[in-house]
């Protein structure tokens, strides 16, 4: 039998970090076992489900490169099937029409509570046959009255729930639409899901779902409930904590490899190993090694992982992602150095690709404003002479590459008996507009020769102004 997992988001928002981790673990488990991975959109809540959210979920999955092998299936396209199963449950005596109103059920709960029992529907219509013909009804599942349900959870271990604690849950509303617990069971059954991986906020649903599987004579899947993710303040991760949408991490400049690697470790470990390639994740991941306790989100660690991947992945690949950010920031990179070369020199200078784009603008765009502090410090009257001399030497170069550029700067310093910095710093400020840049010879080499000479002239105007003012 093929192992089959699924990711079953409700399209009521973007793909958030918790959902992405669930999707990742489901996907990994299927990959590892040569199984299938289904994407199922649980869109039965018509009021809250939106197409924008379906798109956002798929964008997130695609960006993370979590490819589903089947689907996407949409629950709204399966109403006929749910109806069929509900009829089947009615016919087999495993479900019944309940004519109690919501108010009546509230009273039943109150009564049960007053008696010190479990607040639940009292089963009034469970065995009645005197059905009114003119009243609305819901359909309830006949939950077993006795015995226990044991969830053999791969992550949490055995969890035992007594049937007395469970009520006869509604499987079809008065308008005939099926409820979550019914649709999930029908889908997991029809789609031959063998392993249900989901957040532990669903644990209370699981015994109910197991009982429905049994009533249908369907095989019960295995379960793995993942503990929640906490924010840096120890509270459940939510919008308050800043970026929780997967696509927001893209916008903030993280590589998908970094977010995936970060997420795989957020709730699972393999010794003290931190960095996992996709292949390693697939090979080493196992649901049974997932943590039982909640995990805390740690942005510093995510940044660390991101820096690792920016520095170690193929620069040409990182450049594809950088290109997106350049465009996002309105930087036209059609003329200028290859982005892969930018990645090579900037990767260890930034935390994110967004920052990398920001600090690389001068490679592609001219500027008239220079960093005021850097100008004040490095474009002083005394630099006129070295700037003129280095310009002359740079202008004479026929091979515009790091070594001769380095020699030109060095020769200038030697000739004028200055330290390298006294030539290099003003040159750097002139060429890049600021006092920080990667190694100067490489930076200049990546810039066009003509452009560098023009920028030296532009800086000399500032130097002249200061001479005039002094
Ligand atoms: N649609 C449910 C949710 O988004 C998940 C259901 C499941 O995984 O069983 O929370």
TrEMBL record:
**Predominant place of localization:** cytoplasm
The reaction(s) annotated as catalysed by this protein in its Swiss-Prot or TrEMBL entry are: tRNA(Glu) + L-glutamate + ATP = L-glutamyl-tRNA(Glu) + AMP + diphosphate
Record motif 'HIGH' region, residues = 9-19
Enumerate the spans annotated as Aminoacyl-tRNA synthetase class I anticodon-binding domain.
319-460
Query: GO molecular function of the protein, one example?
Result: glutamate-tRNA ligase activity
Read off the SUPFAM superfamilies from this record: An anticodon-binding domain of class I aminoacyl-tRNA synthetases, Nucleotidylyl transferase
Q: Which UniProt keywords apply?
A: Aminoacyl-tRNA synthetase, ATP-binding, Cytoplasm, Ligase, Nucleotide-binding, Protein biosynthesis
The record's InterPro entries line, in alphabetical order, gives: aa-tRNA-synth_I_cd-bd (IPR045462), aa-tRNA-synth_I_codon-bd_sub2 (IPR020751), aa-tRNA-synth_I_CS (IPR001412), aa_tRNA-synth_I_cd-bd_sf (IPR008925), Glu-tRNA-ligase_bac/mito (IPR004527), Glu/Gln-tRNA-synth (IPR000924), Glu/Gln-tRNA-synth_Ib_cat-dom (IPR020058), GluQ/Sye (IPR049940)
Q: Does the keyword ATP-binding apply?
A: yes
User: What EC number(s) would the UniProt record show?
Assistant: 6.1.1.17
Is Transferase among the key words of this record? no
Binding annotation for ATP: 239
Looking at the record, the residues that make up the Glutamyl/glutaminyl-tRNA synthetase class Ib catalytic domain are 3-304
One Pfam entry name: Anticodon_2
Where in the cell is the protein located?
Cytoplasm
Where, by residue number, is the motif 'KMSKS' region?
A: 236-240
Gene3D superfamilies, per database record: 1.10.10.350, HUPs
Subunit structure, as described in the record: Monomer.
UniProt similarity note: Belongs to the class-I aminoacyl-tRNA synthetase family. Glutamate--tRNA ligase type 1 subfamily.
Its biological purpose is as follows: Catalyzes the attachment of glutamate to tRNA(Glu) in a two-step reaction: glutamate is first activated by ATP to form Glu-AMP and then transferred to the acceptor end of tRNA(Glu).
State the NCBIfam families in the record.
gltX_bact (TIGR00464)
User: What protein is this chain from?
Assistant: Glutamate--tRNA ligase
């Amino acid at each position: 039998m093929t192992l089959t997992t699924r990711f079953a988001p409700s399209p009521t928002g973007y793909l958030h970090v918790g959902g992405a981790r669930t999707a990742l673990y489901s996907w990994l488990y299927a990959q590892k076992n040569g199984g299938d991975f289904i994407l199922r959109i649980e869109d039965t809540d018509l009021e809250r489900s939106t197409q924008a959210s379906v798109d956002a979920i798929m964008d997130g999955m695609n960006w993370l490169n979590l490819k589903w092998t089947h689907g996407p299936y949409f629950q709204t396209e399966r109403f006929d099937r749910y109806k069929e199963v509900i009829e089947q449950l009615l016919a087999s005596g495993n479900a019944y029409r309940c004519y109690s109103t919501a108010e009546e059920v509230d009273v039943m709960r109150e009564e049960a509570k007053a008696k010190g029992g479990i607040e639940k529907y009292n089963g009034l219509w469970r065995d009645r046959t005197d059905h009114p013909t003119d009243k609305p009804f819901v359909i309830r599942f006949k939950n077993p009255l006795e015995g226990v349900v044991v969830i053999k959870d791969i992550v949490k271990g055995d969890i035992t729930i007594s049937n007395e604690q469970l009520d006869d849950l509604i499987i079809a509303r008065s308008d005939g639409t099926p409820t979550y617990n019914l649709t999930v069971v029908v889908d997991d059954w029809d789609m031959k899901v063998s392993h249900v991986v989901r957040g532990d906020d669903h644990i209370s649903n699981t015994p109910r779902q197991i009982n429905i599987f049994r009533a249908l004579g369907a095989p019960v899947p295995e379960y793995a409930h993942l503990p929640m993710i906490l924010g840096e303040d120890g509270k459940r991760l939510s919008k308050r904590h800043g970026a929780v949408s997967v696509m927001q991490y893209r916008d903030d400049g993280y590589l998908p490899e970094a977010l995936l690697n970060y997420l795989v470790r957020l709730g699972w470990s393999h010794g003290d190993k931190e960095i996992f390639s996709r292949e390693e994740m697939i090979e080493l991941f196992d649901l049974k090694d997932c943590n039982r306790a909640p995990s805390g989100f740690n942005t510093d660690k995510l940044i660390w992982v991101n820096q690792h991947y920016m520095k170690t992945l193929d620069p040409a690949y990182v450049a594809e992602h950088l290109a997106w950010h350049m465009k996002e920031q309105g930087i036209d990179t059609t003329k200028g150095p290859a982005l892969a070369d930018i990645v090579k020199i900037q990767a260890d200078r930034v935390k994110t690709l967004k920052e990398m784009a920001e600090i690389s603008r001068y490679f592609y765009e001219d500027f008239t404003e220079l960093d005021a502090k850097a100008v004040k410090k490095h474009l002083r009257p005394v630099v006129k002479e070295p700037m003129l001399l280095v310009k002359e030497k740079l202008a004479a170069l026929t091979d515009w590459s790091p070594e001769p550029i380095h020699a030109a700067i060095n020769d200038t310093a030697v000739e004028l008996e200055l330290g390298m910095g006294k030539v290099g710093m003003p040159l750097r400020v002139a060429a890049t507009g600021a006092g920080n840049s990667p190694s100067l010879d490489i930076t200049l080499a990546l810039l066009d020769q003509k452009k560098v000479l023009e920028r030296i002239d532009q800086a000399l105007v500032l130097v002249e102004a200061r001479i005039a003012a002094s």
